[in-house]
Amino acid sequence: MCGRYASARAKQELLETFEVEVDGAAEEELRPDYNVAPTKPVYAVMSRTPKANPDGRAVRQLRVVRWGLVPAWAKDPSIGSKMINARVETVAEKPSFRKAFAERRCLLPADGYFEWAVLDEAKAADTPGKPGKPKKQPYFIQPADGEVMAMAGLYEFWRDRSRADDDPLAWMVTCAVITTSAEDELGRIHDRMPMLIEHDRWADWLDPGTPDAREFLIPAASTKMRAYPVSTAVNSVRNNGPELLEPLQVGEGDGRPLF
């Protein structure tokens, strides 16, 4: 799964990189976040057709959404914290995601993501008679060229029926990251990873009129990614700063080499 990532680039850089036509987050600029966790606000790039657009053309937008998809039929938004990821193997069929996959796909900009490798399968139990938790080492995984990472995502609108129609808080926009199997070196860290969309496929992926978007879901080659161990400080969502992305020095952590 993908449960933490970093998104620290300025909004203006994202607007330029993703060739955004409409800044849907004009009144809201997120601060750099080096420890993005579920339910936090994040940037999402999407293509939508404005109601006032006479030619019916979809326009690429940047919006702020909440990480953790809440289906339109959900009774309350609490379900979103459990729906941060959508597996590529079932995203087109699973009731919670299939409509969003068909009509509401997005790109979630990131600098990279965190994953935890199990170092010791067994650990001495803290309480006699109870199994101990395995020791884990966090890694930061990012594009080897340092460019922004475009994670394949879905977004959905949820209506709070307890609020008036003209209440700006009546609607919530949420998202999920599509995940795929991790191969080769990345698979040694964790068996899942975010699905990444290559630049030349962005337009087709975002286009609501694309009949079958599954053809654009091709896992990134591990040779295009760089992974290295980082401090366990990232384990706590309370910690947030560029130091979370700094590689461990020799002798720290488990001492595993960089990929």
Automatic annotation (TrEMBL):
<keyword id="KW-0227">DNA damage</keyword>
<dbReference type="GO" id="GO:0006508">
    <property type="term" value="P:proteolysis"/>
</dbReference>
<keyword id="KW-0456">Lyase</keyword>
<dbReference type="GO" id="GO:0008233">
    <property type="term" value="F:peptidase activity"/>
</dbReference>
<keyword id="KW-0645">Protease</keyword>
<protein>
    <recommendedName>
        <fullName>Abasic site processing protein</fullName>
        <ecNumber>3.4.-.-</ecNumber>
    </recommendedName>
</protein>
<keyword id="KW-0190">Covalent protein-DNA linkage</keyword>
<dbReference type="GO" id="GO:0003697">
    <property type="term" value="F:single-stranded DNA binding"/>
</dbReference>
<keyword id="KW-0378">Hydrolase</keyword>
<dbReference type="InterPro" id="IPR036590">
    <property type="entry name" value="SRAP-like"/>
</dbReference>
<dbReference type="Pfam" id="PF02586">
    <property type="entry name" value="SRAP"/>
</dbReference>
<comment type="similarity">
    <text>Belongs to the SOS response-associated peptidase family.</text>
</comment>
<keyword id="KW-0238">DNA-binding</keyword>
<dbReference type="GO" id="GO:0016829">
    <property type="term" value="F:lyase activity"/>
</dbReference>
<dbReference type="InterPro" id="IPR003738">
    <property type="entry name" value="SRAP"/>
</dbReference>
<dbReference type="GO" id="GO:0106300">
    <property type="term" value="P:protein-DNA covalent cross-linking repair"/>
</dbReference>
